[in-house]
Amino acid sequence: AGLGEFRIRDLNDEINKLLREKGHWEFRIKELGGPDYARIGPKMLDHEGKEVPGNRGYKYFGAAKDLPGVRELFEKEPLPPPRKTRAELMKSIDAEYYGYRDEDDGILEPLEQEYEKKVIAEAVEKWKMEREARLARGEEEEEEEVNIYAVNDDESDEEGGREKEGEEGQQKFIAHVPVPSQQEIEEALVRRKKMELLQKYASETLMAQSEEAKTLLGL
Question: One GO CC term of this entry (predicted)?
């Protein structure tokens, strides 16, 4: 460690150069039919060497592992924080998370009211401009008040207005929708009862034949 940074780097480079040359000779010996020293030979020179993650082949020995810039490469990255489970995440979720308490601080509501007034004013101004433009073109507006609750005396029964008068002095009842008679209600109940019995006791084949017959007859 007392040799100095530059001398240590030079020595570490020389060791790596010799190790590469040694590997080339071992490969050549094996190629010529000799023993495989790379597999069975002793690891006397590089057993203390340490490779930087991501830089395979170059090793640092002894004091070279503590050189500035090298020490940081060997420091392990801190483990990522453990991921929270769904139950742990749900603990911090309340009504405020969904925005139900945004108006409690008294800041948002005045801003919304101010923006609402601005939008209404713009809409009114736009309507006035369009109205003035129509008047300039000679288009007269005919505004007519219509009472939607008014009842026309001569309204026909076909339009849904049926008047039922009771005894003298009683208020008239006006039906604005078609009201079925007692006979129509009884016929509808009988048809419904027949369909319920048919669906309950008839087989699927019989139902299919019945529907097919209705189709052929145009019913």
Answer: nucleus
